[in-house]
Every structure is written in structure tokens, then in C-alpha cells.
Amino acid sequence: MILPIVAYGDPVLRKKAEDISKDYPKLDELIANMHETMYGAFGVGLAAPQIGLAIRLFLVDTSPFAEDEDFTTEEQEVLKNFKRTFINAKILEETGDEWAFNEGCLSIPDVREDVFRKPVITIQYQDENFVSHTEKFDGLIARVVQHEYDHIEGILFTDKLSALKKRLIKARLGNISKGKIEVDYKMRFPDMKKKR
Predict the structure, then answer these.
(1) What DSSP string runs through the chain?
(2) Contact by Cβ (8 Å): 133, 122
(3) Mean pLDDT throughout 22-47?
(4) C-alpha of 76 from chain center
(5) Which CATH number fits domain 5-195: 3.90.45.10, 3.40.50.300, 3.40.50.1970, 3.20.20.70?
(6) Is 103 known to be catalytic?
(7) Model confidence over 44-70: pLDDT tens digits?
(8) For the whole prediction, is pTM greater than 0.90?
(9) How far is CA 118 from CA 8, 74, 75, 85, 147, in A?
(10) What are the boundaries of each domain within the chain?
(11) Which of 36, 30, 60, 37 is nearest to 186 (CA)?
(12) DSSP 20-48
């Protein structure tokens, strides 16, 4: 089932999310619905706060990037096959020189800006079967994971922009929170408490 994506301005996007246990009600169904919602909106990641749940759960599927000809065949293969569920994640380390990449967010439609992030991360998490992992990711995969991880920490990519950039997009963010935007996926807007 496709769920409405929570728009910028909703307080749930600012909450630090809570850990969950394997007894979390209907977790398999929730993960399946989140995948359907993410694919329906042509996303490469989706975090539980974006569907209104302040829990430490997010999904990443970088396969859409595999079509990008800027990547080597080997990189395309890695991106094509990277699909993960992250539960109770904790980034242990971020290393390397920060690099810019143009990011967007399903909760902040039609706003894209260059964001600087470190290229290598080490993250501890549990998968959908609650098996624990500690892994190192780099490049685009690390970036998508960092973006989704920020969501469970109550951080949005717009928080990482310069004061000038924030001023330039302020009116657009206000319009998003009021539902004054056209999107081709279901959204829930905080000011109007309406769905589209």
C-alpha cells in the first residue's frame, strides 16, 4: 500500500527517532509499504519519519543510479544491486574530504541543492531479520545512507545549506508546508492536514 509522504514542516521530521524491537507491530507489512511508497515516488531512499513514524527505520535502493553513464561499469553494478533495510542504525564514523552532490528529498519536492558530506562511513545496523551488521560504505551509497540516516536524527538536507541558500529557498519551503505545490505522489501537508 502506498502511504502519503509527510511534507516539510511536519514536526515528525524534526524528532529524533526511537529504536524498535523485532516485536514492532506489522513490521514486515510496514517495510513492504515503505518500499512501495518509495518506488511510487521514484525515490532511492525513504525513512520512517517521512511516513509519519518516529522510529529508526529506513530503506535504500540505489539501483536507479546504475543507469548513470558517469559511473564505471563496476560502480554501476554495485549501485544496481544495493538494496538494504536499516533498523536501529548508528553511524560510527565518517571520514575523508567532504564532497558536494546535488540532493533532493521526497518530503521537500522541487528543491535540490548541493550538499557537502564525507565520502566514507562506517555504520552499525540491523536488517529486516534483526541480524546485526557493521559495514563501511563509500561514494554515492554512503551519501544516500547519510541522507536517510539524517531523517532518523531529525535532520533535513536543507539544514546543511549555507545561510544564503536557506534564505533563497525559504519561500519555497513555506509553500511546501502549506501544500502549495504539485507532486505526482501522495503527500500529507502539515498546515492543511490534507492529503494529495
Answers:
(1) -PPPEEPTT-GGGGSPPBP--TTSTTHHHHHHHHHHHHHHTT-SEEEGGGGT--BSEEEEE-GGGGG-TTS-HHHHHHHHT-EEEEEEEEEEEEES--EEEEEEETTEEEEEEEEEE-SEEEEEEE-TT--EEEEEEEHHHHHHHHHHHHHHTT--GGGGS-HHHHHHHHHHHHHHHTT-S--SS-EEETTTTEE-
(2) no
(3) 97
(4) 21
(5) 3.90.45.10
(6) no
(7) 999 999 999 999 999 999 999 988 888
(8) yes
(9) 25, 22, 18, 22, 11
(10) 5-195
(11) 37
(12) --TTSTTHHHHHHHHHHHHHHTT-SEEEG
Residue 64 main-chain phi, psi, to 5 deg: -60, -30
Residue bearing cell 539544514: 159
Active-site entry in 103, 148, 153, 182: 148
Beta-strand pair 83-95/120-126:
antiparallel
Residue 95: what residue type? Answer: T
